[in-house]
DNA sequence: AATAATAGTATGATTTTAAAGACTAGATCA
DNA sequence: TGATCTAGTCTTTAAAATCATACTATTATT
C-alpha cells in the first residue's frame, strides 16, 4: 500500500491538542486540580486504579506542555502542589465543549446553552 | 495508598467523549471522511504509517460509537464507503474548539472568531 | 530507636498495543 | 490460465505501556 501524507499528525492542530489532553488520566487530573485537589497524594487517592508512576508521568507531561505548574515547598515531609497555568486555564472552552457533547450524546443530559449547565 | 473514587471515568462526560474521539487515528480519519475520502483503500493511502488492521479497528470503533456509518455496495471487487452520521456531524463544534486551541497555543496561529478561520 | 509522613524513583515482570506479512472471495482483464 | 482488484482477517512477532513492589531522603513524633 503506497502511502501519501496529506492529513498527518504533525500539521493537524486537533491531533496536536489531543496529544496534550488525551492522556489516559489527564482530563481527570485537570478536573481534580480545577477543584483544588492539587497534591500528589490526594490525587492518587481520588483516582482509583492509577499507579504512582502513572500519576507522576501524566503530571510531568502536563507540566512539560505548560498546562500545569509544579510548586515545591521546602518542607519535611515534602510538599508539592500543582496549579493550572494560564495556558491550562485556556483549555476551559475546549473541555466545556467536550463535556457538553458527552452529556448530550453519551449520557443524554441536555445542556442549557444560556448557563452552560 | 487507599483509593476513593470521586472523579472517575464512568461518570466524567469529558473522559467519555475522549474515549470516542481520542483514538490514535480517529481525528484524522474523521477529517478524511469530512473531505469525502471515504473508502478504506484511499484512507490507508492518505494516512502515512497506519496499518490495515489499525485502520479497520479505528473505523469499527467509530462505527460502534455511532459516529460513522459503513455502507457496503454489492460489487466485485468490493466497495465500502464510510459516512458521518448525525451524531458524527454533531462533533463539529468540539473539534473546532480543539482546532482553534491547537492553532493558538501549539502552532501560534490566531483564529478569527468571526469567521472561525 | 523505631515509625510515620510525602513525593516520588528504580527495577523487573506483565499486559497491551500494534506491525508485518500471508491469506481470502469472486468477478474481470490480459 | 493466471493476474488484478478491494476490503478486509489471521497469525505470529516485536515494541511500548503499565503494574507491583521495594526503596530513598529528612524531620518530627512516640
UniProtKB/TrEMBL annotation, chains A, B:
Domain HTH hxlR-type: 12-110
Superkingdom assignment: Bacteria
Annotated transmembrane regions: none
Pfam families, A to Z: HxlR
Keyword annotations: DNA-binding, Transcription, Transcription regulation
MF terms in GO: DNA binding
PANTHER family attached to this UniProt entry: TRANSCRIPTIONAL REGULATOR, TRANSCRIPTIONAL REGULATOR, MARR FAMILY
Protein known as: Helix-turn-helix transcriptional regulator
Protein species of origin: Chryseosolibacter histidini
Amino acid at each position: 500500500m503506497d502511502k501519501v501524507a496529506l492529513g498527518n499528525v504533525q500539521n493537524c492542530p486537533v491531533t496536536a491538542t489531543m496529544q496534550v489532553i488525551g492522556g489516559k488520566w489527564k482530563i481527570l487530573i485537570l478536573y481534580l486540580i480545577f477543584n483544588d485537589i492539587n497534591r500528589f497524594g490526594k490525587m492518587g487517592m481520588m483516582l482509583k486504579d492509577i499507579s504512582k508512576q502513572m500519576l507522576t508521568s501524566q503530571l510531568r507531561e502536563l507540566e512539560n506542555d505548560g498546562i500545569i505548574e509544579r510548586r515545591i515547598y521546602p518542607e519535611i515531609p515534602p510538599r508539592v502542589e500543582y496549579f493550572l497555568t494560564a495556558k491550562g486555564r485556556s483549555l476551559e472552552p475546549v473541555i466545556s465543549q467536550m463535556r457538553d457533547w458527552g452529556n448530550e450524546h453519551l449520557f443524554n443530559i441536555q445542556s442549557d446553552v444560556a448557563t452552560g449547565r
